[in-house]
Amino acid sequence: MNEREPILSVRDLRVWYGTAKGAAQAVDRVSLDIAAGEAVGLVGESGCGKSTLGRALMGLTPNSAAHDGQILYRGQDVLQMTKRQHHALRGPEIGLIFQEPMTRLNPLMRINDHFEETLRAHEPNLGREEIKRRSLETLGHVGIPPTRFHQYPHEFSGGMRQRIMIALALVLKPKLLIADEPTTSLDVLVEAQILRLLKDLQSEFGTALLMITHNLGIVAEACDRMAVMYAGRVAEDGDVGSVFANPGHPYTRELLHSTISLSTRELSHIPGSPPNLVTPPQGCRFHPRCPDAMQICTQKVPVTTHPQPGQRVHCWRHGPDELIPEGGKAPLQQEFDHVDEA
Ligand code: SF4
């Protein structure tokens, strides 16, 4: 796996939300490392828990959420931090770029006021000239000219607003940047510009990046490693090249095939839909949709295997043979047929 020293280590993290129908297991036993200067992509369908995980890393889950496990940032557990420690963490240590920049920028505040508010929240004694200097310097990095410094958010395009959000996250020089679907509402050209910008900034400042997205193309473009989430769990993680070349988990494989064919114009998709997280399926949560499912998949949580260096897969198909019952590698449907005949 990752050989560099991690600045962030997630260990067996679980997050539940209280709902009227019971506890929803939004994140279930997730472990993940991010090293300094590394870009990690977190992918999966909507509702798979990737945004909940991103928010949990900053201590931003709602009060109704319960947690278990550890989130170690430079050795300190984020889940055990006080409010004061969380405040010191968010911004100078871990920055967050939200999706939908228009809803995150205050329409009544000019851009200079957004920067002043952000900087003063962490450095209250900073002088006005220094605030201006640092703000303009950071805006320059994302291609916003000084002449736009006193304008309101509505005077900028969607792409420029997202650049401003990135600058607001970078002005405190965080060691880790979490970008949650940072290009969702942007057209493809602006998306390409934002991705290039994030890459350039990352190599210039050595910032680690966690890119949360449903778009595998973005991961291929911007990340060194990736983790694929399904129904709150990590199905597979590893180097981007290894996972794309040899996806070990059936869900990753199906996700990579879920594209429009240029020749037939047909959309290939994964049949079925993600499970209800209040009552998720037993065993492997993907088994009701998995073309490779076996009987054991309906009963036991899959073991972790390493099909090749730099790759970790949670799937019974890669499990040690001694753990798989005789004839257990037959497709699940055939096994059900056999039981019916008996
Ligand atoms: Fe499919 Fe079983 Fe692997 Fe889950 S554990 S992905 S159901 S083969």
UniProtKB/TrEMBL annotation:
GO terms for molecular function: ATP binding; ATP hydrolysis activity. It is a peripheral membrane protein. It comes from the Bacteria. GO terms for biological process: peptide transport; transmembrane transport. CDD domains: ABC_NikE_OppD_transporters (cd03257). Residues 320-342 are annotated as: Disordered. Keywords: ATP-binding, Cell inner membrane, Cell membrane, Membrane, Nucleotide-binding, Translocase, Transport. It holds the Pfam family ABC_tran. Residues 10-256 form the ABC transporter domain. One of its GO terms (cellular component) is plasma membrane. Its main location: membrane. It is found in: Cell inner membrane. The keyword Cell wall biogenesis/degradation does not apply. InterPro entries: AAA+_ATPase (IPR003593), ABC_Ni/Peptide_Import (IPR050388), ABC_transporter-like_ATP-bd (IPR003439), ABC_transporter-like_CS (IPR017871), Oligopep_ABC_C (IPR013563), P-loop_NTPase (IPR027417). Gene3D superfamilies: P-loop containing nucleotide triphosphate hydrolases. NCBIfam families: oligo_HPY. Belongs to the ABC transporter superfamily. This is Dipeptide/oligopeptide/nickel ABC transporter ATP-binding protein. It comes from Rhodovibrio salinarum.
